[in-house]
Write a structure and sequence with these properties.
Helix content: 40-55%
Shape: extended
Structural class: alpha/beta
CATH class of the largest domain: Alpha Beta
Strand order of the largest sheet: 2-3-4-1-5
CATH topology of the largest domain: Rossmann fold
Radius of gyration: 36 Å
Distance between the termini: 84 Å
Oligomer: single chain
């Protein structure tokens, strides 16, 4: 049986174990204590920052049997042990990269109404959710917005920009940040001590830097180092495994750049590559070193997480270089890192970057272009030696004639002036009959608010007040808060019916009845089979309106 990987062995099992994400763990703890757990979460961030681990911890916490919410998850009750042993049926983990189609989401939607087997909530963790197809996202929308009360969704992604806004708006979003270098070093040192490793401080720092803010990458590299060098890990072991040049050679290359000594820099590059260093890793190390120098040249060295010895070296080079030279060298070596993938020579892109970064950029001279008449005369003189020399007499500027825009035809003007026809007397039935025509007439005065009336309907008409019911609360709020909308629509009604009318906006009672109907088990079953609730038929007595 293969040995368990370190990143699996030391996966966080409680909120206290999650490192560097206090803004997320504190929020989730408070939600548990206040009993305000949301129905859908979206965890986003780079790889190895703890998204899936936090999702599993949250799944344990909402189902934990510990009486005190502040102690959840306890990792001791039956539910917590079942999650840790990956045998809880009510925790469903879906790999969206392998289940991208709409049929997979439909299958999930068909099973979601079943109650949990043994836990309080059924938790669905959809990893790499950005890999779902457009049709799969659309199939997930309604279920994600109003899932059954016993279901919690946790979506995880590394590319949140590929998740539709309709999905994001239905979730509580948490952004996982990269681990800072001190946090990563503490975690790796803790694992090394637990595993009985002897890790040099310089080796620990290099492993943490190579992880680039990812706990999983750092732990996997530490696991690889134990297989390479045993329980004693030195800086040389890490450099040999990574194909990295020694810190002295990287410093020598950057010192040659500061001194503008091309030969010295080429010699240091050849020494690093001949010693077995990977050219791309050399370019990456040079860029990282030059970034530290740049921070000293722009007086932002407080942001650097380096030791005092390294800080003194960077400060000395920063005194010899200016920000323009540092930025140019960083840009050239970053491009060389990309060019090395397709280069026939293993060192040529690095050498070219070093040469260009050492030399000053050539000044760009822009010559003034001759006037068109002088240029034409010069060309003619070159072709005919007996032609007269061009004169510098200025010519009159060309004149421009103003052309008016074409006028509209009379038919178009008449069609634009004709308002929609309104027929019938002023009543609820007449308003409903002419509602589309009234909206078109209102659109001439207020194009922004007219679309909101398409999802609304006249409800009651008492005296001179018309009550309009909006199906969506946000539409009612937008229309009600517009300072001109109700007045302008009242004028449209007055011009159509000849009587002053005041407007009152409310949320339609049908909205709540529609929601109750959709929560009915029989109706939900029909919706899962492809049906759709389009209208609510009310009793005749309850639907009577009072007309003016």
């Amino acid at each position: 049986m293969p040995a368990q990987a370190l990143y699996q062995k030391y996966r966080p099992q409680s909120f206290d174990d999650v490192q560097g994400q206090d803004h997320i763990t504190d929020t989730l703890r408070n939600a548990l204590v206040l009993n305000r757990v949301a129905h859908a979460y979206l965890f986003t961030g780079t790889r190895g920052t703890g998204k899936t681990s936090t999702a599993r911890i949250l799944a344990k916490a909402v189902n934990c049997l510990a009486p005190d919410p502040r102690q959840r998850p306890c990792n001791e009750c039956a539910i917590c042990r079942a999650v840790n042993q990956e045998r809880l049926l009510d925790l469903v983990e879906i790999d969206a990269a392998s289940n991208t189609g709409v049929d997979n989401i439909r299958d999930l939607r068909d099973k979601i109404d079943f109650r949990p087997n043994e836990a309080r909530y059924k938790v669905y963790i959809i990893d790499e959710v950005h890999m779902l197809s457009t049709s799969a996202f659309n199939a997930l929308l309604k279920t994600l917005e109003e899932p059954p009360p016993h279901v919690i969704f946790i979506l995880a992604t590394t590319e949140v920009n590929r998740v539709p806004a309709t999905i994001t708006s239905r979730c509580q979003r948490f952004d996982f940040k990269r681990a800072a270098l001190p946090e990563l070093m503490r975690q790796l040192d803790y694992i090394a001590q637990k595993e009985g490793m002897e890790l040099e401080p310089a080796a620990l720092e290099l492993v943490a830097r190579q992880a680039n803010g990812s706990f999983r990458d750092g732990t996997s590299l530490l696991d690889q180092l134990t297989a390479y060098s045993g329980d004693t890990i030195t800086l040389g072991h890490v450099q040999a495994l990574l194909g990295a040049a020694s810190r002295e050679l990287i410093q020598e290359i950057c010192a040659a750049l500061a001194a503008r000594d091309i030969g010295r820099g080429i010699a240091a590059l050849d020494t690093a590559v001949d010693a077995g260093a990977d050219p791309r890793q050399v370019a990456r190390d040079v860029v990282d070193y030059l970034r530290g120098v740049l921070m000293f040249t722009v007086k932002s060295e407080t942001t650097l997480n380096v030791g005092e010895e390294m800080r003194a070296q960077l400060r000395a080079l920063g005194a010899q270089m200016n920000p323009e030279q540092c930025a140019r060298a960083i840009r050239l070596f970053s491009q060389a890192m990309l060019d090395l993938r397709n280069s026939a020579s293993p060192t040529l892109p690095l050498e070219m970057a070093l040469v260009e970064a050492t030399l000053d950029p050539a000044p760009v001279v822009v010559a003034a272009a001759p006037a068109p008449n002088v240029r034409a005369a010069t060309t003619a003189a070159a072709e005919n030696p007996f032609a007269r020399a061009p004169t510098s007499k200025p010519q009159a500027a060309p004149t421009y004639q103003r052309i008016s825009a074409p006028k509209k035809s009379k038919a178009a003007e008449v069609a634009a002036d004709n308002a929609p026809e309104i027929s019938g007397a002023l009543s609820i039935a007449g308003l409903k009959k002419n509602w589309d025509n009234l909206i078109r007439a209102f659109q001439k005065n207020n194009k922004a608010m007219a679309p909101f009336l398409k999802d609304a309907e006249p409800l009651t008409l008492r005296d001179d007040t018309l009550v309009i019911g909006f199906f969506y609360e946000i539409h009612q709020a937008r229309f009600d808060n517009d300072k001109n909308a109700k007045t302008q629509f009242g004028k449209v009604l007055q011009e159509a019916y000849g009587a002053p009318i005041h407007i009152k906006c409310i949320v339609s009672p049908k909205r709540e009845k529609m929601r109750e109907a959709q929560n009915d088990p029989l109706v939900r079953t029909g919706m899962n089979l492809g049906g759709k609730v389009t209208n609510i038929i009310e009793d005749k007595e309850s639907s009577e309106e009072t007309d003016a």
